[in-house]
Structures are given as C-alpha cells and as structure tokens.
C-alpha cells in the first residue's frame, strides 16, 4: 500500500507526459454549477435555521447537504469532461458513486454550523477544514475512478496546494456567513449574504478541482498510441450532467418549498388558534359582521355581556343590538366605509347596547373595517362601562366627601409646587381663619401673595432647611396674620411628584397650635415652679434633718446618760418619758426622710443573710407590750414550709412589719392582731397582718397607700402619726421586688398582705447577732460643733472612755486647733457658721499637701442622713461618717477605722436585745420596758402564776401532740417572756418552738426539762427580790373619795375627747385610787403616754361606769 502511494508521487520524465486541453465552455459551466449549487444549499440552510422543529430542521439540512454535495460531485465530473487527453477515458461505477459520499458528509458538517445562531471561531475553523477536506477527498476519489491507458501521477507541492485552497476558501465562506450580519437589516440582505457565501464556496470547489488537475501528471506508457477524441461527445455529456444536477437541485428546492409551505400553514393555523383564543379570552366583547350587518362571529365576553349564546347571534342583524339614538350614526358609519368615504379605523365612543332582556347597557364601542377583494368586513370592540361609571360616581362622591372634610377640619390642607417660590396649586378655605387672607389670594400665576411671606423672620431659615432636607417633614414655626398677631403653626408634609412629567409638589397639612403653645408655656412655668418646690422640699428636709436631729441628739444622749445614773423612781419615770418621746419624734422624722429618699430613688438596700423567723419574733416581741397594754391578743402563725434562713434586706422587712403591725395595734380597740407567714406557689414569702380594728370605707381604702394620708383629718388627732407608714411600706416592698395590697371592712377590721421574692441564704450557717465593744486607747480628740449641748454631750461620752477633749465652735477655729495642738482625731460637725465642716476639711487637706504634714483623720458628724451628704463628706477628704443622735459603739468603730487601728475589739456573740443565756432576768432592759423595777417584778410574778400550769401540761400534750396548737402556745410564751426580759426562758422557748416546727417529740422533750429548770430559777429570783413587797408603795397612797375620783375621770375624759394630755390630773387619779382600780388607771395612764386617746376614752368610760354603779 505504501509503495502504491509512493508511486503516485514519484518523479516523472517530462518527455513521457501527456498534456491535455480544457474546453472553456465546459469549465465555465462547471464553475457556474458549483456556485449555483452552493447558493441553493445556503438558501435551504437559511430556511432550516428559522425552523423551530428540530426534525424538520435536520431534514432541510440533509436536503441542503445533498444539493451542495451533489454540486461538488457534478462540478468534478463536468471539469473532467472539459479535459481532452486524445485517449479514451472511462470511470469505475462503484468508485464514482462512492466519491459523492465525502462531499455530502462535508456539506452536512458545514451546513450544521451555518444553521446555528451562535458559533465560536474554533467551530468555524473546524467546519472549514472539514469542508475543504471533503471537497479534496471527493476530487481525488473521483480521479481514482478514471480508467485510461496513461498512468496517473501527482506533483506533491501542487497536490497540497489544492487542499490548502479548498480549506482556506471554505473557512472564508463560513466566516462570511456569520460576519455579514449587517446585511440582515437590508431588504433581500439574506440573499446577498448567501450569494457571497455561495460565490466563495463555489470558488473553493472549482479552485480545488482545477488546482488538483494541475497537480495531475498523465504518463505515457510504453507502446501508447494517441487516438482521436470527439469533443462534442464530451460537451453533450457535460450538458447532460449539468441538467441532471440542476434537476436534482430543483427537486431539492421543491422539497424545500413543500416543507416551507407546511411550516407556514402550521404557523397560520397556530396564529388563527391563538387569535381565536385571544378574542375569547378578552374581557372586552368582540363582534364580527359583514357589510350587510350580518353577524359572523361573537366571542364569549360579548355573549356574557348581552345574555345571548354565540349560535343565537350568528347570522343575526347586528342592528338589533344597537339602541335607537345611535342606529342612524351606525348606518352612516358602515355605508361610508363601503363606499370608501370612511376612515379605516373607527374611533371609540360611548354608547348603549341592547341586552337580551331589552335593557340598555352603557358601553364604549370601537369599530374596525377591513376590505379585501371587494368584500368589506367589520369588527366591533365593546367595553362594559357599568363598572367604570360606578367608579366615577363613587369617585365623585368620595371627592365631595373629601372636599367637605378638608373644608371642615381645623387646619389647612395644601399642595404647592416644589420650587423656589412654592406657589400654591391648592389650599383649603381654612387658611383664612389662620392667616386672615382668603384662599384665592394664594392661587394663581402669579398669586396675589405667597404663604411663606407670613413666616416669622427668625423661623424662615430653619423651616426651609427642614423642608429641603427631609422627604417627610414636621416643623413648628410662627407667622404673622393679617392683624399682625403672631400665630404658632405645626406643619406636616412630604415631597411628591409625577415621574412622567417630572413635576414635583409639596403636599401637607398645617394646624394652628397657638393655644397649645400657650399651654406648654404655662406647663413649663408650672414645671419650673414644681422643680423649685421639689428643690426647696429637698433643702427643707436636709435642713430639718440637721436642725431637729441636733437638739434631739442632746435630748436623747443626755437622757440616756441620766437613766444610767438616776435611781429615784419618779425622776427615772420622767426621764424615761423624755427619752421615749424624743425617740418617737426621731421615728417620725425617719419616716419623712425615708419617704423623701424613696421618692428620689436614692434608697439603697443592705442585702445579707438573716433568719426570717427571728426577725418576725423581734418585731412581735417589740410590739407585744403595746398590744398587751390595750388588752389585745397578738398571735403569730408561721407555716411549717417557711424556711428559716434567707438572703435579703432584714432591716427593711422589719421596718415594714413594724409599720403594719404597729398600725394594726394602734387602730384596734378590741380583739387583736393576727400575723401569718406562708409560702405562695410562686415561692414568694407572703405576710398577712389581720386586725379587728376600726376598718376602712372603700374611699379610705383607696387612699391608704398615699403619702401623708389617713382615713380623715381626725385620725391624726386621735391616733397621731404622719400618715407615711403605709406609704413607706409600699415603697419598700416594691423596692425589694414584692407586692403589697390591703382589704378592709368598715368597723370590722383590715388585712394588709405583702409578698417578697426572698433568695436562699448564701451561707447555711445561721448568722449570729454580734455586739462589738471596742475599747479605744486614750486619744486626744478635737470636737468641732456650733451647738454647745452637742459639745457637752460628746465631751461627757468621750471623757468617760478616757479620752482628752479639745473643742472648737466652727471650721476656722478647728483649723487653728489642728495647727497648734496635738490631736489624734477630729470629730467635726458638717453644718456650722463662719466656716462649715466640709470647707474646713478641704483646707486642712490642702495644708497637709503644701506643708508635708501627716494625715489627720477627720470624722464627719451630721444630723443629715441623705446619701449625697455622706458622699460630699468623703469628697471633702473626711475619713468617716457618723449620724446624730450619736451611737457610741458605731462612733468608736469609725474612729478605729480612720486611725487604722486593728480592730482587736472584743466581739461577743449575743442574742438580740442584749439578752444572755447566763442571766435569768435582764433587769436593765425590763426596767426600760416597764418603767420601774417594782412593776417589772409584779408582771413577772403574774406571768409565773398564769402560765406555770400551761408549761407543766406540755409534757402530757406530747403524748398525742397537736403541733399547730403547741407551736402557737410556745410562740405566745416566748413573746411574753421576751417582753418581761426573761432572757434564759425566752431563748429556751424559742428552741422549743423550733422543735415543734420540726414535729420532733424527742428534741422537744429534752428542751422541756431545761424549761422547767429555768422556770424554777425565775421563782427563786422572785423570792430573792422579796416579791411580797410588790405593791407596798401603792397601798401607802392616800385613797380619794369616790366623788372626787369621778370628777377626775370626767375631766380626763373631756381632755381625751379633745386629744389633750392633762398630766397633773392623771397623776392625781393614779395616786388616789385603791388597789382594785389601780391596774385600770395605769392602763389609762399608758394610753395617754402613748397618745392613744381613743383607747384612753374607752377605758375612762368603763371606769366612770364602774364608779357610778
């Protein structure tokens, strides 16, 4: 095989070559045939590219490929017939037939690329190469089919050149097909482009053929003889092949035309179907009729509108649908178009059309006319106007309502152009009531006046800035009206516009707010006054704190000192009254200050672990004596599920309980008070204080938590107090995160309930009550105060502790003392004349810095309790802070901390109220509670007589214990013993109550034996004190006649009714009654001492009734 191929390209002796001639006519025919076949193939490919059906597109591509491939094949053999070699030439039939396959295949590849919408450069190159290769293959296969005497050889160079020519021209042809896209916009531009492509492709086919013929070498074999060749035969054969080829191309064109016609027919049917579907889907009615008025078609919309079916309308006269007022116009319109005197397209107009039931339907009709082959057809488009007319009617009604609304609202509605002058396009009539000018003055081009001309000069700049910068704006400004008055306006508005016309507006609303501004100005003035009043109130409270606490400091301090020294009962009684009255006044003052701090939000809670049961016990024990004096019961019921240790603010819980229980006792004359402590489902601890007192009306109940509010004005006179107790309680409960409420029934009693969300204790060990007794080393102390009583009191207290005292009366004197004398610590009052304590401390700190002096500790002494005063003292350079009245132990701790002394003071764990397990009776505390020792001993004796049997019965009760009863009895006994200062017994009863809460029989039995021992110790104590002497002093009193006692009783009753305290008459009564009446008279005296005038009235009436019987 290789040798055969090599032989084809072997060199040949030029003397052996046979040179042939070409017939020019046949050459021209062959070239023309190649170009024509290429053009027809391109046309068919163009048609194929426009088809949507892929199978039809492939069929047309195949047809075009046969046309182009057949053209290549025909051109080759026509070109061969054009060659004359003076020797007979025949062709192998099979090889000749096979030679057409490469050309058809190459044509398929090229045309498949042509029919694509988008191709890449690489695809063009590959397609051109394959097309050129197909042409060359067809040519050389066709040459191989020749049968003749000469031998066929090829020149290698020209052979390769023929392939290059074919490939390059084929690539060029494909490039032209996709490059000359601009011709698509020219009429017949697609044919021009196909002609250009066909020309190049035809040249590629013929150029390759004749270049390949130039490469052919016909070699004369040995013994070869020339013979004549009839050229006419070749021409006949050439024409015959050309005609056959043209016939095939025409056949291809016919097939193409058939396919194209079918495509167009299918498209026409599709368009017709779409048109019918569109007409039927149209919301407007469509009616077709001819020149005589006969209806030819009707869509679904017109049938639905008129109430007819389509088959009922077809063949009917369209005039039966035209109402009488429009029939003549309709006939003229139709006749005018038939005679070519009308327009092609009728203009739409509003009319009325008859429905099937004879009613007239408002419609808009537009009639179109088409004339073809002398036949006129009309199409009427009918739109239902009923909905539009309803909308127009609603719109007119809405517009009328809107105009009515605009004209009646108390403000200006407007629209103006959004430009520099902003002329009004619309402005409501309300502008006249505001500006004083009619609305017509602002409308026009140009208007009589512009609205912005009224704006106050001080406001115009700000107003324009707000309007220009914000899309939606709101502004307040002033204007001058026609009378020259200033009016305040509030304007709302927004920028809007028409995107089509680029016109921009400002739409808005303007209100007259002059009255509101005047009201705001009044409110500002009132607010300033209120703030000044609040400031004055705060200053008053601070001043009151100082001015009242300062003398109280001396009263309480000196009375405490005298109580330690005075033994004479009468003097001691008077001192006790002084001390209690001063402390009561201090309590009232603390209520007022607490309320002020709570109102200002400056009240701080001190959170720590505490025993809830002990706090409740402490309050109840404190108030038990008060209830006992009024013969009231004071019961406590703590639910078993209530825990013992919690973390919270025990001081404030105790304050709330004291306020509420104290009020309950104060307002209860008969019965008593019950306190219950339980756990709510939410986990909060709930406290309830229930009394059987005077109760409240619904009106009074609504004001119960208001500051300084009591049921009525007489309450303050009858019962005393500031009216702040419940207010402070409510504020404290809410500050601790709880809630408080009250319920009451007039003359039956009240119930106050509050709940607190208490956290569990941080430490499981029960906190002990610590009593610190700090003994300071002897010190040189400078006391600075402007009030001599305070200096005397502090001097006495400090001297008793072994300190040396230096005094000064103001800040300047203090500075001199600090410079000249040896001083360890300074106790300095804050508020003083000439130079106050804060300024003096600041000056001292400056001197220490300048002169490099050692730091001198300064403790602030002040009657103020406000947090800002404490902070001011620290800011001034003071080292500590102590309140008046002075607490000696706390003051010692402050001094120790300021001096940096290691607090190695004696710290003793003791029970509350300074009780001790090693003392049977705390005589000092008992005397403070009962006034004198004899009264205390008498009360203890009565306690033993009444309750010893009950204590002895506990052992039997443990056989079948009712724990709630046992717990209540132990709690009552614990309170009684605590108020009698029976320290040891009270502590043991407290332990027993805890055992009862745990329902532990064994533990309670162990404690019971100890309780009996403590009771025995009390009886021994009473024997040692010679209890028989109790009451001797009373027996020695001079007994008054009954008539005189009655007169004293009536006089005291009159005083109590007027809330007055006649101390002299009361003392005469107590001193002049017999032992039978003494206890009752002492109750009356206690009621007066506690300012319980109502209780005193009740007791006096009972005494008077007893005396007059």
Largest sheet: 5 strands, antiparallel
Tell me the fraction of residues in β-strands, as a range. 15-25%
Give the strand line-up of the largest sheet.
9-8-12-11-10
Radius of gyration: 63 Å
Gross morphology is elongated
What would the average pLDDT be, to the nearest integer? 79
Question: What does this molecule look like?
Answer:
The protein is of the alpha+beta class. The chain is built from 38 helices and 32 strands. The strands form nine sheets. The protein has a five-stranded antiparallel β-sheet. Strands 14-13-17-16-15 form a five-stranded antiparallel β-sheet, sandwiched between helices. Helix 25 links the parallel strand 29 and strand 30. Helix 2 runs antiparallel to helix 3, helix 3 packs across helix 6 and helix 6 crosses helix 8. The chain is elongated and about 190 Å long. The N and C termini lie far apart (166 Å). About 4% of the residues have low confidence.
Give a quick precis of the structure:
With 1109 residues, the protein is of the alpha+beta class. It is built from 38 helices and 32 strands.
SSE blueprint:
Elements (H helix, E strand, L loop, with lengths): L1 H7 L8 E2 L2 E2 L1 H26 L4 H28 L1 E2 L4 E3 L1 H6 L1 H15 L6 H24 L1 E3 L2 E4 L1 H24 L9 H27 E4 L11 H51 L3 E6 L4 E4 L1 H7 L3 H4 L10 H15 L10 E6 L5 E13 L2 E10 L1 H23 L2 E7 L6 E4 L3 H5 L21 H13 L2 E9 L5 E13 L4 E10 L1 H52 L3 H32 L7 E4 H18 L3 E6 L6 E4 L1 H17 L5 E8 L5 E7 L6 H5 L10 H7 L5 H11 L3 E7 L3 E8 L2 E2 L9 E4 L6 E5 L3 H13 L3 E5 L2 H10 L4 E5 L7 H15 L6 E5 L4 H9 L4 E4 L4 H12 L6 E4 L13 H8 L2 H20 L1 H4 L5 H17 L3 H15 L3 H24 L7 H4 L6 H16 L5 H10 L2 H15 L3 H16 L1
Parallel strand pairs: 19-21, 27-28, 27-29, 29-30, 30-31
Antiparallel strand pairs: 1-7, 2-3, 4-5, 6-7, 8-9, 8-12, 10-11, 11-12, 13-14, 13-17, 15-16, 16-17, 18-20, 20-25, 21-22, 22-24, 23-24, 26-32
